[in-house]
Structure formats: C-alpha cells, structure tokens
Amino acid sequence: MKTAALMLLSAGVACMASDTHTCDGKVLPKDMVNDDYCDCTDGSDEPRTSACAGLEERLTYWCENEGHKGKMVSQSQINDGICDCCDGSDEFATTAGCVNNCIEVATVYAKEEARLKAIRDEGLARKAELVAEAKRLIAEKQGQKQQWTEEKAILESDLANAAVIKSTQEAIEQSERDEIKRKSEEEKALWEHQQVQKKSEADHRRVANTAKHTVAVQTFGAVTVGGEVELITDLKFTSGSTAREGLSGTVLTVLNEESGTSYGISLVNGVKFKTTDVSHFRPKAAQVPKEPEKVNEPPQVIEAAYQPCVGWQQTAGCDPEGAHEITSSCGHTIEDGSSGYCECRPTPAPQGEIVKHKFTCSHKPFTCQYVCEMNGVVGDAFDQPCPDTFPYPVVSSGSEFFGKVCYNSKENAEAGSGPCGTWCARDAVWFEQHRCTWGCECGDMCDDNDDDEDAANTETHFESVDTTEETFTVDTGISHTRQEATTAREEYNSIQSKVSDLEGKISSVDKELETNYGPDSVFLPLKGKCVEYTTPEYVYKLCPFDKVTQGHTSMGNWESWGTQTYGSWGGQDDLTIQKYTNGQGCWSGPARSTEVRVVCGAESTLGTVAEPSMCTYTMVWHTPAACV
User: Fold this and answer.
1) Could you give the CA distance from residue 126 to residue 95 in angstroms, rounded to a whole number?
2) Which residues pair with residue 591 across a beta bridge?
3) Which of 408, 447, 540, 78 is nearest to 231 (CA)?
4) What does the pLDDT look like over 468-482, one tens digit per residue?
5) CB–CB of 446/434 below 8 Å?
6) Which residue among 235, 375, 471, 536 is least packed, with the fewest CB closer than 10 Å?
7) CA terminus-to-terminus distance, the chain
8) Which residues have a Cβ under 8 Å from the Cβ of 409 and sit 6 or more positions away?
9) H/E element holding 28?
10) How far apart are CA 274 and CA 260, in angstroms?
C-alpha cells in the first residue's frame, strides 16, 4: 500500500511540474489541476486539495512508524508542513524537519494503555457484580408482579360480589327514597288543600268582620274613611289637656281591617289617636244635636252584630256526651282536663241550627268563641289575635268603656287594673296585641299622644300584616341513606381502591421490565443512584434514568438513549449516549437539555460538564456498566 501511495504521490508531483495532466484518456490543462475539483477517477489531478478525499485508495498514506504503531493519514496531511507520522515520512517533500520519535511516543502510549486497561479490568469486575445485581432485581420485580397479579385476581372476584350486594342495597335504598317522595307529595297535596281551606275561612271571617264593621258604623253614627267628624263631648287626656266639644277632624283609617273596629282620627289641632268608641263623634255634615246628659241611668246596651258562638256546655267524666255540669260564656277559657262542647250557630239567623263541637279532657286551652269562628279548630288561646271589638255587647257609659284594654301584664289584665302595657283583656281571656301609649290609665281611651306638644311627633299606630307566602317543599328522599347500602358502597369502594393500587404497581413493573437497561440489564442497579460533579460555581448532579440538575435548576429529565448508526450494541439504542430533555426554561431561550456520554470507568463518577450552546449541556458519565 505504501508503494502504491508513493506512486500516486509521485504522479501528483509530476502533475504539478507539468503544464498538463493526463488521466482517463484525456489531457487536463494546468489550471484544472489542484482546482479543488476531482476531474480524474483516480483523483490524481488533486494531489494538494481534499476534493478527491473520498478515494481512500489514492488519498491516504500509511505511516510505518517503526517502533510504534503504524497509522493511515489522509492526502491533505501529506507534505502539509506538519509532522503527522511519528517517523516523519508524511513530509518527504517539505522542509518541515520531522524527526523519528516513535520510540518516545510508544513509551507514553504504553503507559496510557496500561492505565486504561487497569480501569477497564476493574470496571469489568464491577460490571459482573452489576449484572448479578440486575438479575436479582429483575427476578424480584417479576416475583412482585406475579404476587400482585394473583392478589388482583382475588380482589376482582370480591369486587364482582361486592358490586352485586351494592346494587341490591341501592335498589332498596332507592325504593325507600321513592316512598319518601310519594308520601311527601301526598302531604303537599293535603297541605295545599288545607291552604285553600284556610284562605276560604279567612275570606269568610273577613266578610263577617265587614258586616260587624258596618253595624258598628251605623250604631255609633261614624262615617267612612276620609269623612269629617266633630266632637260632641269634651275629651280629657291623662296629660291634663282637653279636646273641646265642636272640634272637628278627619277619619284617617280603620286600624284593623279584619275586625273593623278601631278608628284613627285626626283633629284639626294635629292630635291623632285611635279609639274603639266613636260615640264622642258625629258626622260633621249631619248636625246631630247634642243629646242631653242623662243622670243615674244604667249603661246603655248596644246589640252587636251576629255572633257564631252560643256558649260552652261542660260535661262530666271526660265524655262530651256525659252529664251536664256547667254553662260558660264564649270567651271563657276552657283548660285542659275539661270535657264538653261548644255550641255554635253556622248562620247569622237566630233560628239557625246549633252545631256542637265536642271535646274530651285532652286538648289545648281554648275559647268557644275562637272554636266557633274557626269552624271547630282548636287554637292556643294566648296565640289568638286580640280583636278590637267585642264579639258580644259593648257596655258604654260616658268616657268609660269595656272592650280592648291594654295592661302591662297578664295578671293586671285579669285584675282589670294597673299600668298600660301589651296585654289586652277580652272578657276572661288575655292576648298580647297592641301597646297602649304610656301614661294612659287602663279603662280610659288610650290616645297616641300624651299632650298637644307631642302631637306632631306621634304617628298613628297601625297593625302590621304578615304577607309572607307559605311554601311546601317536597322531600325527594335524595338525602335518605340506608345503612346497609352505605356499608355496601364503602366495601365496594375499598376493594376498588385496592384493585386500582395493584394495577398501578403492575403497570410500573411492566414499564421497568420493558426499559432497555443494556445487555443483561447491567444499568438497572444504577437507576436513580445519583453522582455529582462540583465546580467553583455549581454542583451538577446526574441521577441515571431520572434527571440532571445544576443546583436547584433542572437541566433535563430522562427521555431515552441515543440513536445509533452502527451495530456495536446490537440494537437501535446507542448505549454510549443518554438524553435528558424538558428541563427548566432559559430566559428568552429553550428548555434546558443535557446529553450524557457514557464511558467505561472503574466506578460510577461524573466527569466534565460543558455548555456548547445556550442551555444545551454535555457531560461524561464514567461507569463500570459501559466497560467491554
């Protein structure tokens, strides 16, 4: 080979000395020689350029290098003024002055070879240990997979049984929910019916009270709202002030529409008050003459409007059909423990049929007045509204009246004396209703002002009306749970969780066993065992098959082996290169990535680190697993 190369080189030298060059049966002019274009198939026209570098037979030169190892150099290195061969034979036509130093080179080379061999031998010994460790790990993982697979099969059988129990109990639970909903819907239908009845009864009472109001207006000679009235008697207030006869005013409103009893009247001097006794007034236009004062006459009894209640008939033995004991008025409170019946008139006509609402000894306190008005419904007497007009005759004499009177306590109301307050007396039954203005004497008309000075600051007292609409929400039963169904669900979910956990473990082992850890899985024992390389600025860390870091900065996460273009590893993966990608992003740059060169080493260490381009790193990993 050396002789052939020298012949070709001689041809090249001759070519450079001549004005023409002949090859392949053609003659090339001198300017086509060494023009960096290969015109001859043997490359002889380009002895001084690399244009024909692909023609290995012609463009290489063999250095004998006696005393050391021979080597091949390219044509571009021949006679280039640089000593590439230790024997200097590549510079035969130059004055480079190359000397033969092959003996010295061989000595250095031998020492390096011995060092590398020692590393390789130690690495191979350690590699054998890694192979044994890898075999144990694989067997362990396969055993775990087998165990988990068997446990999963048992749990899946249990899960199927639990699903049947869960389905059965949930079906029962759903039927119970449906029953709750059905009953609730029935209750709503009954409630709606009762609401209709209540409204009808309220409308009935409203009509009845309107009739009472009409009678009262006719009886007292009052006028409609907005009408003018005048005093026909002097009115004295507890403060000492007096509203004189002849003083005119305006009827503002009827304070209680349902009972139609209490009038709000404003006098011309601004005094406002409410009263159930309008006998002190007359319509201004009527000019009714003042009646002469009657002396020593008994109080006048004015017949009230139609009342539905007749009275209470008490019986013996807690039997409403028992022997008659006593008769009580409509307003008398019937306590728990008394039996009998309320007599009621269903129509205004006196000759109307008497209806009996019967009671045993077990009931809430009530009055027959309320029972008759509510068509037999029993209510708590102290929860009943306090009407402004008696449902029976009103006794009136002078400025005194016996009707709705407010006291500061139930006891004072019962006694009929004491300071004004929120308790009102209606016969022997007391109800909490309006508050009389302070300073009024119970039994007197309580106006809304203590004196004329406060008149401008006192507003007429009107009773508020609750307009809140009641609603009924159907219970769909969705919140109902059956204990057996709850237990079945918990058992099913518990087994399902265990199955999912085992599936995750099996999947992880499968992925581990499918990963290429090199021949005999020699790299498997090194997975996750981190190695470091320290510089004055940073600490670099490589955790094989996991990640690469620079301090706290990610330089990439495990992606794959390199892709080989030769077959020394017997597969598609290049086991001399590892790729770590998708690290922390650089400012205005790409995500960091690292390429790790894997070389033979006596032990696992991290070598030099470089950054050939922005945020792209290289490092060398020495490991026994790479020794061959």
Assistant:
1) 52
2) 585
3) 447
4) 567 889 999 999 999
5) no
6) 536
7) 32
8) 418, 421, 423
9) strand 26-29
10) 13
Angle between helix 102-220 and 483-514 (nearest 10):
160
Query: What does the block give as tokens for 534?
Result: 């320290």
CA distance 331 to 301: 18
Report whether 129 contacts 512 (CB < 8 A): no
CB 346 within 8 A of CB 355: yes
Which pair of tokens denotes residue 307?
């009342």
> Which pLDDT band, with edges at 50, 70 and 90, does 213 fall under?
very low
Burial of residue 594, with CB atoms counted within 10 A of its CB: 0-12 exposed, 13-18 middle, 19 or more buried:
buried
Q: DSSP states of 286-327 as a string?
A: G-PPPPPPP-SPPPEEE--S--SEEEEEEESTT-TTS-EEEE
Instruction: Dig out the tokens for 452 from the structure.
Output: 């004329």
Distance in angstroms (rounded) separating the CA atoms of residues 122 and 601 = 8
- Read off the pLDDT of each residue in 401-416 and give the average, rounded to a whole number: 52
Number of C-beta neighbours around residue 625 at 10 A: 27
Find how far residue 99's CA is from the centre of its chain. Answer: 86
Q: What is the mean pLDDT of residues 213-222?
A: 41
For the record, the structure tokens of 504 come out as: 């995750």
State the chain's mean pLDDT as an integer: 74
The Cα 259–Cα 165 span in angstroms is 64
- pLDDT tens per residue, range 91-129: 888 888 888 999 889 889 888 888 888 888 888 889 999
355, two tokens: 């209806």
Q: Dihedrals φ, ψ of 357, to 5°?
A: -105, 110
CA 417 to CA 419: how far, in whole Å? 7
Say how far apart CA 341 and CA 321 lie, in whole Å. Answer: 9
Beta bridge partners of 579: 560, 595
Interval 563-611: pLDDT, tens = 876 545 456 788 889 999 999 998 888 999 999 999 999 899 998 899 9
For the stretch 517-537, pLDDT in tens is: 999 999 999 998 999 999 988
- DSSP class of residue 441 equals B
- Structure tokens belonging to residue 231: 């005093």
∠ at Cα 451 (445, 452), nearest 5°?
Answer: 120
Q: Tokens 């740059």 belong to which residue?
A: 589
Q: Alpha-carbon distance 9 to 314, whole Å?
A: 149
Model confidence over 423-455: pLDDT tens digits? 544 433 333 333 333 333 344 333 333 333 333
Q: What phi and psi values does residue 101 have, to the nearest 5 degrees?
A: -120, 30
CA dihedral 255, 257, 261, 267 (to 10 degrees): 30
CA 333 to CA 369: how far, in whole Å? 10
Q: Which amino acid is at 98?
A: C
- What is the SS3 assignment for 120-174? HHHHHHHHHHHHHHHHHHHHHHHHHHHHHHHHHHHHHHHHHHHHHHHHHHHHHHH
340-372 burial: b if 16+ Cβ within 10 Å, else e? bbbbbbeeeeeeeeebebebeeeeebbbbbbbb
Q: Which residue has the higher pLDDT, 25 or 55?
A: 25
CA 427 to chain centre: 60
